[in-house]
Design goal:
Cyclic Phosphodiesterase, Chain: A; globular; 189 residues; alpha+beta; four-stranded antiparallel β-sheet; 26% helix
Length: 189
Protein backbone atom coordinates (compact mmCIF):
# COMPACT_ATOMS: atom_id res chain seq x y z
CA UNK A 1 0.00 0.00 0.00
CA UNK A 2 1.01 3.59 -0.59
CA UNK A 3 0.61 6.20 2.13
CA UNK A 4 0.59 9.95 2.53
CA UNK A 5 0.05 12.53 5.25
CA UNK A 6 -2.81 14.90 4.54
CA UNK A 7 -5.31 17.34 5.94
CA UNK A 8 -8.92 16.21 5.67
CA UNK A 9 -11.34 18.65 4.09
CA UNK A 10 -14.76 19.57 5.47
CA UNK A 11 -17.80 19.19 3.20
CA UNK A 12 -18.05 22.92 2.40
CA UNK A 13 -14.46 22.92 1.07
CA UNK A 14 -15.14 19.84 -1.05
CA UNK A 15 -18.35 21.43 -2.38
CA UNK A 16 -16.44 24.57 -3.40
CA UNK A 17 -13.79 22.48 -5.18
CA UNK A 18 -16.44 20.40 -6.97
CA UNK A 19 -18.17 23.63 -8.01
CA UNK A 20 -14.88 24.85 -9.49
CA UNK A 21 -14.51 21.55 -11.36
CA UNK A 22 -18.02 21.88 -12.78
CA UNK A 23 -17.09 25.21 -14.36
CA UNK A 24 -14.36 23.43 -16.33
CA UNK A 25 -15.76 19.92 -16.85
CA UNK A 26 -17.78 20.59 -20.04
CA UNK A 27 -15.01 22.44 -21.85
CA UNK A 28 -12.16 20.13 -20.87
CA UNK A 29 -13.25 16.54 -21.22
CA UNK A 30 -9.61 15.44 -21.47
CA UNK A 31 -9.20 16.05 -17.74
CA UNK A 32 -9.91 13.36 -15.21
CA UNK A 33 -11.70 14.96 -12.27
CA UNK A 34 -11.22 13.79 -8.70
CA UNK A 35 -14.26 12.82 -6.67
CA UNK A 36 -15.11 14.30 -3.27
CA UNK A 37 -13.64 11.19 -1.61
CA UNK A 38 -10.31 11.82 -3.36
CA UNK A 39 -9.90 15.44 -2.23
CA UNK A 40 -7.23 16.11 0.42
CA UNK A 41 -4.52 18.65 1.05
CA UNK A 42 -1.46 16.42 0.91
CA UNK A 43 1.35 17.41 3.24
CA UNK A 44 3.79 14.58 2.51
CA UNK A 45 3.74 11.62 0.13
CA UNK A 46 5.29 8.65 1.93
CA UNK A 47 5.11 6.08 -0.87
CA UNK A 48 5.05 2.32 -0.40
CA UNK A 49 5.35 1.15 3.20
CA UNK A 50 5.22 -2.54 4.13
CA UNK A 51 2.10 -3.52 6.14
CA UNK A 52 4.21 -4.58 9.13
CA UNK A 53 5.32 -0.92 9.57
CA UNK A 54 1.79 0.51 9.64
CA UNK A 55 1.71 0.74 13.46
CA UNK A 56 4.99 2.65 13.41
CA UNK A 57 3.57 5.03 10.77
CA UNK A 58 0.71 5.84 13.14
CA UNK A 59 3.11 6.52 16.03
CA UNK A 60 5.26 8.78 13.87
CA UNK A 61 2.18 10.66 12.59
CA UNK A 62 1.06 11.23 16.19
CA UNK A 63 4.54 12.46 17.10
CA UNK A 64 4.48 15.14 14.41
CA UNK A 65 0.87 16.19 15.09
CA UNK A 66 1.53 16.62 18.83
CA UNK A 67 3.86 19.55 18.05
CA UNK A 68 1.29 21.45 15.95
CA UNK A 69 -1.54 23.72 17.05
CA UNK A 70 -4.78 23.88 15.03
CA UNK A 71 -4.47 26.24 12.08
CA UNK A 72 -6.95 28.11 9.93
CA UNK A 73 -6.50 27.93 6.16
CA UNK A 74 -8.24 30.03 3.53
CA UNK A 75 -8.56 28.38 0.14
CA UNK A 76 -8.88 31.27 -2.29
CA UNK A 77 -6.83 30.62 -5.42
CA UNK A 78 -6.72 28.25 -8.38
CA UNK A 79 -3.94 27.20 -10.69
CA UNK A 80 -2.17 24.57 -12.75
CA UNK A 81 1.04 22.56 -12.54
CA UNK A 82 3.52 22.78 -14.04
CA UNK A 83 3.90 26.49 -14.68
CA UNK A 84 4.59 25.76 -18.35
CA UNK A 85 2.53 23.81 -20.88
CA UNK A 86 1.26 21.17 -21.05
CA UNK A 87 -0.96 21.37 -17.97
CA UNK A 88 -0.87 18.17 -15.87
CA UNK A 89 -2.70 19.12 -12.66
CA UNK A 90 -5.49 21.60 -11.90
CA UNK A 91 -5.71 22.71 -8.28
CA UNK A 92 -7.30 24.91 -5.62
CA UNK A 93 -4.93 26.46 -3.11
CA UNK A 94 -3.98 29.30 -0.81
CA UNK A 95 -2.86 32.66 -2.17
CA UNK A 96 -1.12 33.58 1.09
CA UNK A 97 1.56 31.38 2.56
CA UNK A 98 0.80 29.97 5.98
CA UNK A 99 3.88 29.78 8.18
CA UNK A 100 2.45 27.02 10.40
CA UNK A 101 1.43 24.89 7.42
CA UNK A 102 4.88 25.26 5.88
CA UNK A 103 6.43 24.31 9.21
CA UNK A 104 4.16 21.25 9.42
CA UNK A 105 5.31 20.13 5.97
CA UNK A 106 8.98 20.68 6.88
CA UNK A 107 8.52 18.76 10.15
CA UNK A 108 6.89 15.86 8.27
CA UNK A 109 9.68 15.92 5.68
CA UNK A 110 12.37 15.89 8.35
CA UNK A 111 10.68 13.43 10.69
CA UNK A 112 9.81 10.87 8.02
CA UNK A 113 13.26 11.09 6.40
CA UNK A 114 14.45 9.34 9.58
CA UNK A 115 11.87 6.68 8.73
CA UNK A 116 13.54 6.21 5.31
CA UNK A 117 11.20 8.37 3.24
CA UNK A 118 13.08 10.64 0.80
CA UNK A 119 12.88 14.37 1.45
CA UNK A 120 10.84 16.47 -0.95
CA UNK A 121 13.05 18.16 -3.52
CA UNK A 122 10.44 20.66 -4.73
CA UNK A 123 9.18 23.69 -2.87
CA UNK A 124 5.98 22.94 -0.95
CA UNK A 125 2.97 24.56 -2.63
CA UNK A 126 -0.13 23.74 -0.54
CA UNK A 127 -2.97 22.77 -2.86
CA UNK A 128 -5.91 20.45 -3.38
CA UNK A 129 -5.51 18.59 -6.68
CA UNK A 130 -8.91 18.49 -8.34
CA UNK A 131 -8.16 17.48 -11.93
CA UNK A 132 -5.42 15.62 -13.80
CA UNK A 133 -4.66 15.86 -17.48
CA UNK A 134 -2.83 13.12 -19.34
CA UNK A 135 -3.42 14.58 -22.81
CA UNK A 136 -0.37 16.64 -23.78
CA UNK A 137 -2.59 18.90 -25.87
CA UNK A 138 -3.95 20.67 -22.76
CA UNK A 139 -2.14 23.94 -23.25
CA UNK A 140 -2.84 27.66 -22.89
CA UNK A 141 -6.63 27.41 -23.27
CA UNK A 142 -6.98 25.31 -20.15
CA UNK A 143 -4.55 27.43 -18.14
CA UNK A 144 -6.28 30.62 -19.29
CA UNK A 145 -9.72 29.24 -18.45
CA UNK A 146 -8.59 28.05 -14.98
CA UNK A 147 -7.10 31.46 -14.13
CA UNK A 148 -10.22 33.19 -15.43
CA UNK A 149 -12.48 31.56 -12.85
CA UNK A 150 -13.18 33.48 -9.65
CA UNK A 151 -12.96 31.09 -6.74
CA UNK A 152 -14.96 32.21 -3.72
CA UNK A 153 -12.74 31.89 -0.62
CA UNK A 154 -13.59 29.16 1.89
CA UNK A 155 -11.88 28.61 5.24
CA UNK A 156 -11.38 25.67 7.55
CA UNK A 157 -9.66 25.15 10.87
CA UNK A 158 -7.39 22.14 10.48
CA UNK A 159 -7.03 20.25 13.72
CA UNK A 160 -5.61 16.86 12.78
CA UNK A 161 -3.05 15.18 10.56
CA UNK A 162 -4.37 12.17 8.66
CA UNK A 163 -2.52 9.08 7.56
CA UNK A 164 -4.07 8.19 4.21
CA UNK A 165 -3.77 4.79 2.56
CA UNK A 166 -4.04 4.63 -1.22
CA UNK A 167 -4.98 1.46 -3.04
CA UNK A 168 -4.50 1.54 -6.79
CA UNK A 169 -7.41 -0.12 -8.59
CA UNK A 170 -8.55 -0.43 -12.21
CA UNK A 171 -11.09 2.31 -11.47
CA UNK A 172 -8.41 4.66 -10.17
CA UNK A 173 -6.96 5.19 -6.70
CA UNK A 174 -9.12 4.53 -3.66
CA UNK A 175 -8.21 6.50 -0.54
CA UNK A 176 -8.93 5.68 3.06
CA UNK A 177 -7.98 7.60 6.18
CA UNK A 178 -6.58 4.95 8.49
CA UNK A 179 -5.49 7.24 11.31
CA UNK A 180 -6.27 10.75 12.56
CA UNK A 181 -3.73 12.39 14.86
CA UNK A 182 -5.04 15.54 16.60
CA UNK A 183 -2.95 18.70 16.62
CA UNK A 184 -2.34 19.13 20.31
CA UNK A 185 0.22 21.93 20.77
CA UNK A 186 -1.05 24.99 22.59
CA UNK A 187 -1.36 28.28 20.74
CA UNK A 188 0.87 30.96 22.27
CA UNK A 189 -0.91 34.24 22.87
Amino acid sequence: MRYSLALELEPQIKEAVLGFQNQLREDFKEASWLTAEQLFLTIKFLGFVPPKRRRQLKRETQGVAARVAPLELCFDSVGCFPDTDPVRTIWVGLSLSNRMLTRLQRDCDEHFSLFGVPRDEKEFVPHIPCGRVSDKSAKGNLRKRVHGIKFTPVTQVMDQLCLVQAELTNDGPRYEIIYRAPFSAKVLS
